[in-house]
Amino acid sequence: MNELELKYGCNPNQKPSRIYMEQGRELPIKVLCGRPGYINFLDAFNGWQLVSELKKATGLPAATSFKHVSPAGAAVGLPLTDVLAKIYWVDDLGELSPLACAYARARGADRMSSFGDFIALSDVCDVDTARLIKREVSDGVIAPGYEPEALDILKEKKKGNYNVIEIDPNYVPDPIERKEVFGITFEQGRNELVINDEFFANVVTDEKEIPDSAKMDLAISMITLKYTQSNSVCYVKDGQAIGIGAGQQSRIHCTRLAGQKADNWWLRQCPKVLNLPFKEDIRRADRDNAIDLYIGEEYEDLLTDGVWEQTFTEKPEVFTREEKRAWLDKLENVALGSDAFFPFGDNIERAFKSGVKYVAQPGGSVRDDHVIEACNKHGMAMAFTGLRLFHH
Q1: What average pLDDT does the segment 227-242 reach?
Q2: Where residue 198 falls among pLDDT bands split at 50, 70, 90?
Q3: Which of 16, 60, 124, 269 could form a disulfide with 76 if both were Cys (CB 3.0 to 4.6 A apart)?
Q4: 309 Cβ contact partners less than 8 Å away, ≥ 6 residues apart
Q5: Which CATH architecture group holds 3-172?
Q6: Is the pLDDT confidence value at 170 over 90?
Q7: Which CATH number fits domain 191-267+328-384: 3.90.650.10, 3.90.1150.10, 3.40.30.10, 3.40.140.20?
């Protein structure tokens, strides 16, 4: 099969729509269930590239949660702590496979953005991962294969209409890629840049040491950015993206957006949040929304009399700004990547508030000295990669 007709394009009025291979070549995918759409395939193919590169870079199973052609989360399959299992709502599933851990991390870091995601898995989907996927609100999954029982589980989702795509892991695209905009064809070489430890060799700060664990986190950050709509900034800790700021015109807005997401990820681990007295029958999405409100500036919308009773068995105490800052001050050793240079030191100042210790960015700004000075002030190690990672 070299062509697949789609229901419509990005929007229902955009018809006809299809994906196809030129020169009669076969598509490298099989649709095992459902009917994926135009945006589903954009997410699937970008996500597959991301997790494939993460697997090559780390040797670990990888997963990503994609929304609107940018990752909401990405991670490798390191074991979950008890706290992470609880905030990702998987503590009832027992010990999970490495691939399931990767998806729990990718999905759980920013559950608000991951709602209705498209999933990409680097390895054959196993039963643990399928069980986790089945109970989340998701549009579909792409993987190099599926265990028979895992496929049966996924086919039960959405009354048999869940999108399940199998991709040939040996497929290699042409080195030149093209796309049309306004009837005009754009052509460029694919971004085949390999990101490994050598990518972070040029450390320009007073602090020179970047341990192997931080290099892995920086690699995850930069590979994630490679498939994130620019401008983009990504915070990573312990093998998973904890905050991604995508598609902002200003880099400081990327840094703030990603930093706020990283802060929320950490605040969710505070005992005061972990022990919120939720009603037993509350839905998962409503619980996520409530937590997001509780730890944010609009907490009064949740704790007003006549409102909190819908969510909690008793009224929670306010999570004060001082309490939040004290908890955030415990976050440390976070890695930060940027897809282009930081033009001002304010990005570093914002990153420091979210526990950033290690930074990777291309460098090349006329104000590099100010950015280096900001890192030195806070004892950060920063590597200049010399290579930009824009993605559009």
Answers
A1: 97
A2: confident
A3: 60
A4: none
A5: 3-Layer(aba) Sandwich (3.40)
A6: yes
A7: 3.40.140.20
pLDDT band for position 57 (50/70/90)?
Answer: very high
Secondary-structure breakdown of the chain: helix, strand, coil percentages, each rounded to the nearest 5? 40, 20, 40
Domain spans of the chain, in order of start: 3-172, 191-267+328-384, 271-318
Handedness of CA 137, 138, 143, 145 (dihedral sign): positive
Residue 207 has pLDDT above 90, yes or no: yes
* Rounded Cα gap, residues 47 and 224, in angstroms: 9
200 contacts 218 by C-beta, under 8 angstroms? yes
Local structure of 22: helix, strand or coil? helix
Contacts 24+ apart (CB under 8 A), 9-18: 9/38, 10/38, 10/39, 14/38
Tokens of 275: 């022990």
Active-site amino acid positions: 67-68, 231, 392
pLDDT cut 70: percent of the chain above it:
100
Question: 38: buried, middle or exposed (CB in 10 Å: 19+, 13-18, 0-12)?
Answer: middle
**Please, which residues have CB within 8 angstroms of residue 247's CB and are 6 or more apart in sequence?**
70, 228, 229, 230, 231, 232
What is the DSSP pairing of strand 138-143 with strand 163-167?
A: parallel
